[in-house]
Amino acid sequence: MTKVKSDRTHYVSPRATDNVEGFSMKKPDHPIDLPDIGSVRPRSTDAIESSNWMLGCETLDRDYADYHQYKEYISALGIKVLRMQGGWAKTEKVQGIYDWTWMDNIIHDAVDRGFMPWLQTGYGNPIYPGGGGENLGAGMPLSHEALTAYENWVAAMVSRYKEKVKDWEVWNEPNFSDNLVNTPEITADFNIRTATIIKSIQPDARISALALGHIDIEYVERFFLYLNEKKATGLFHNVTYHDYVYNPDANKLAVYKMKQIVEQYAPGMIMRQGENGAPSVGGTGGALSDYNWSELTQAKWDVRRMLENLGNDMECSIFGIIDMNYSGNGPIRRKNTKGIIESASDNQAVRPKIAFYAIQHVTSIFDHTLERLKTLKHTHQIASRGSRPAYSINTDRSISVYGYRNKATQKQLYAMWADDAIPRDKYEPKYLEFSVENGNFDDPVYVDIITGGVYEIPAEQQSIVGDIYTFKNIPVYDSPILVADRSLISMK
């Protein structure tokens, strides 16, 4: 396939393709002072059994994006679950008459390609008095007439797609600033109403609750208190939240507090980051837009959030597959550049961005074959010889470190990055010494997640004393790097 150079950092195919080898990336200019031995090989959707990752394919219901313009790119990302909105107002433009053509085309194509749609039952429909609005931040249907029509639409949609869609979600960001009428109790009741309909038609459905727009601890507490009082927590498979912060690692305390509440009222319920991403251009539409973003800082943000979520047992959905051309009367009226594919003004896919390739590197490595070392702990100086893994790193800077091992071989992988600031549009490594107790490596290598570069760690930069492995002069910066056994990295 002919490759065309699109900019200084990467090459892309001149047209979309399902072939993961059709998307290749030239390593950015930042030099890594280690012997270069190859690159991470991306893996397509059908090559991965399961993983922690989901992909945002939102706003199709309002034509801010076009699934058919980017569908050929999805398989190359190695992600199976696709988040979409159901689009009541797009489907029922005349009271009592449903036109499913637009959604049929999307759902059938996605399933035929091996993807799993995760379908949200929103937004409202203004053809009914009190029917709510069809944009982000608009109210939920509240009148008797509108609620009856909404219930009929949900029932019809679930009946139509129950053989193809197993995952559902109720509404989107009910606590968004314009939704002042949506109290936690009203939202909880609406979630129960919707989930009850879905379960009555599809008992094995997996339903996501809440879809919180930003973490509001009081809102979460009151929402789950209401569910608990109604004995309705069992209707839901997971609870979703969206939390846009400039530093992708800065929300850990809020997430922890939310997790405590969820565990109190619904022990074992899965936490899911249902929508998260960063723009690639500053001053555009949507959350985080008032910062001078670039493609590189977007990519760093996305992969940091992905691996931070994985390291804290949160499922993670990336927002989104393509730039969205917002229009109309909603709160966002400019292009939202959080897409990992650039779009034209007519919604055509132009090219993958750096984040697209970086996410390929994450999905290629972090799948169901790995398990997290949950007892991993930090100590300034490793002295113990217990079975509990411990690590040390010689810096006062805040560094995220998460350890994993292959379930079958027990070989290990450690991900780390500087997490104390918003990602910067440059490469500024610190050369650190990393030690880990009870390490399990045959051939340790260094991996740069942004570029996909795989590098040898020379013998003079390694040492083993008992069961403590030490790696010296390892470049660590504000994007994830890995120290991993070579057997865990699919290379090209």
From TrEMBL:
- Originating organism: Paenibacillus mucilaginosus 3016
| Native organism taxonomy | Bacteria, Bacillati, Bacillota, Bacilli, Bacillales
What's the name of the protein? Glycoside hydrolase family 42 N-terminal domain-containing protein
The UniProt entry, under InterPro entries, shows:
GH, Glycosyl_Hydrolase_39
Transmembrane residues, as ranges?
none
Listed GO MF terms: hydrolase activity, hydrolyzing O-glycosyl compounds
